[in-house]
């Protein structure tokens, strides 16, 4: 789609992405004021770290998926321990 050489399609995509991110950030800050904050448990933090490492090392599929799998297992274990403590 050519708009007369004024606007490049990639510029439209970038502008739309910025607008969407701004809306999400605004909703996040508005919702944050109305809810109580829950602390992240060390096990949940470790699970989050494994998930991020799986994304970072995603080029090697075996390593990436293995790290994500460990993160998911730790997150499930953390959820079960939280439910038992309540």
In short:
The protein is mostly helical and 86 residues long. It has 3 helices and no strands.
Protein described:
By secondary structure, this protein is mostly helical. It has 2 domains: 1-36; 42-79, no CATH class. α2 (42-56) runs antiparallel to α3 (61-85). The protein has helices at residues 9-34, 42-56, 61-85. The protein is built from 3 helices and no strands. The model has no long low-confidence stretch (mean pLDDT 84).
Q: Helix/strand-derived class?
A: mainly alpha
User: Can you tell me the number of structural domains?
Assistant: 2
Return the average pLDDT rounded to an integer.
84
Q: What coarse outline follows from CA principal-axis ratios?
A: flat
The count of strands amounts to: 0
The largest β sheet comes out as: none
Q: How far is the N terminus from the C terminus?
A: 57 Å
Helix amount: over 70%
Radius of gyration: 20 Å
Number of helical segments with 4 or more residues: 3
- Strand fraction equals under 5%
List low-confidence stretches.
none
In sequence order, what are the helices and strands, one letter per element?
Answer: HHH
């Amino acid at each position: 789609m050519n708009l007369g050489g004024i606007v490049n399609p990639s510029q439209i995509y970038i502008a739309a992405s910025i607008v969407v991110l701004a809306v999400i950030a605004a909703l996040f800050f508005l919702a944050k004021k109305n809810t109580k904050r829950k602390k992240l448990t060390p096990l949940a933090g470790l699970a989050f770290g494994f998930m991020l490492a799986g994304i970072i090392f995603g080029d090697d599929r075996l390593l990436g998926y293995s790290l994500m799998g460990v993160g998911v297992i730790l997150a499930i274990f953390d959820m079960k321990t939280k439910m038992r403590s309540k």
